[in-house]
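Need residues for this backbone.
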């Protein structure tokens, strides 16, 4: 007796000719049946390669189980999520890609940025632009490109933290580079960390960089480490005010200067509307 669950396919005769037969394909064999009297003409076992091919088809189409079909659906949605999120991250990085008008050798103020998804780079770019507008020879690069800065008098370190206090992708080589490349003169430094206080290692990588710089003979810290929680504009403007008090190169203290286009529209609409 053949169970219906074993049947994979039944091919009907194309014509009424005696040479045409029913072809019954089961999971483990293929049966040729006479269309007139129902007799079995031949029975051939399916090779292991055909079985593997059928198994592969079952796994890829989800036809073996509704549960497996649901799992495949989740897998497809996950792939789409990673594609879209990857595109968004890449877009942010390209959107805030820094532009330098001075060469590194001639630059006096260096901004080193560690950013995983582009948010920290956004703040750094805004600072860089303001320096350039004031005629300061500013140069902005990812932290991985740390090297000797022959004409620099100040280096700003702006970095986020990835995972459990680890470096963002574009800052993973900074620590070894600082140990390798010793600056030839004293340089002022300041570190700003971006992160979320919901995580136990809040701004962990920025703290690690701060400790490392304190061991270097060439560094002159002009500001203590400042942390920015969840891109808080209050935290950021506190650092801006501290910077303005010691640097002699003032930055804007207007919140709208550092907002993205959409956030700026929201701010202007709900906070600066006439009363």
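Answer:
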């Amino acid at each position: 007796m053949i169970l219906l669950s074993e049947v994979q396919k039944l091919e009907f005769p194309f014509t009424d000719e005696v040479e045409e037969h029913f072809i019954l394909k089961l999971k483990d064999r293929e049966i040729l049946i006479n269309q007139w009297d129902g007799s079995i003409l031949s029975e051939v076992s399916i090779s292991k390669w055909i079985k593997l091919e059928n198994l592969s088809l079952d796994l890829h189409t989800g036809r073996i189980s509704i549960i497996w079909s649901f799992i495949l659906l989740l897998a497809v949605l996950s792939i789409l999520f990673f594609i879209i999120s990857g595109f968004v991250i890449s877009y942010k990085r390209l959107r805030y890609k820094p532009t330098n008008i001075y060469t590194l050798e001639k630059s006096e103020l260096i901004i080193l940025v560690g950013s995983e998804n582009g948010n920290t780079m956004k703040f750094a770019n805004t600072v860089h632009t303001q320096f350039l507008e004031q005629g300061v020879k500013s140069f902005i690069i990812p932290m991985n490109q740390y090297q000797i800065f022959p004409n620099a008098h100040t280096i700003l370190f702006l970095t986020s933290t990835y995972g459990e206090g680890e470096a963002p992708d574009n800052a993973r080589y900074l620590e070894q580079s600082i140990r390798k490349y010793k600056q030839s003169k004293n340089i002022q430094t300041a570190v700003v960390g971006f992160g979320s206080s919901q995580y136990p290692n809040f701004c962990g990588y920025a703290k690690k960089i701060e400790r490392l710089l304190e061991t270097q003979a060439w560094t002159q810290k002009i500001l203590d480490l400042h942390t920015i929680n969840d891109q808080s504009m209050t935290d950021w403007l506190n650092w801006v005010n501290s910077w303005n008090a010691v640097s002699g190169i003032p930055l804007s203290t207007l919140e709208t200067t550092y907002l993205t286009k959409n956030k700026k529209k929201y701010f202007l609409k709900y906070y600066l509307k006439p009363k």
